[in-house]
Amino acid sequence: MVMSLERADEIVQRLWDEDVKSWQVHWVPIFSRFARDLLAFAEIADGAVVLDVGTGTGTAALEAAKSATRHGFVFAIDRSLPMLSAAKSDCLKNGPRNIRFVYMDARSMQFPNGLFDNIISNCGISFQAFNKTAVELFRVLTRGGSLAYNNWHLRDIPAHRAVGEILQRHRSTKPSARLRAQRTALAILERYGNWDMNSEKQAEELKRAGFGAIRMRRKNYRISLGSVDDFIRMRFSRATLRQELQELPKSKRTELYNDLREGLKQFTGNKRFAFDWKITFVRAVKP
After folding, report:
1. Measured between alpha carbons, how far apart are the two ends of the chain, in Å?
2. Helix or strand or coil: residue 219?
3. 141 and which of 28, 36, 145, 191 could share a cystine (Cβ 3.0–4.6 Å)?
């Protein structure tokens, strides 16, 4: 199937809209660890005005609000209304009051020049238009302000990669038009994120946008879950993998689960399921 990058982005964005519950239950506990380290890397001062790009349900925004304290303020943007709705709800119940969640695309922001002291993104930047995003981030950042974000690649996480390889052997050979489009869109964005916009190319785009003092570091996280089945539930809670299961006959789903349990045994020890997750942190400054 031939598909443009823009169309792939639209399809994956719709999948993201469907994943709010999955994200909150299974993924936020993991990404909260990334967010805490991102905030330490960002070096946000008391009283700072902060922008969180691709906030999702607000994991990093809440951390940023703590760093900026009551004298600062955090604007958190995302392209997913369902995610923003969940973020607002959580913030009203439990969070600080110095956050505003806004529906907005980072590639074309309605903020004035030089508004923010810091910009952060906890695995929330879309790299298929990183050149446009970098220019916009530079524009809304004040002089001397910093951009700090993190990201990861599927190929760097053996447990995630193993699931994909096993699923490839079992998934339907006659997918619906919807599933076929989802597969194509995900493959395009995965290839783009893994190869077409690697760390070196990100640095080039940041420099082209005007950023300086660019530094990167990688950190390995040890993720521990109760069992193989916990990991399988986490992975297959996402919309596209739920669709894969729905289009398999019951007997084929059973075969898939059995193969997954067998193939993922390598990550089990001491009655726990544990695997490494490598994250790249990037920080840059507007001169």
Report:
1. 44
2. strand
3. 145
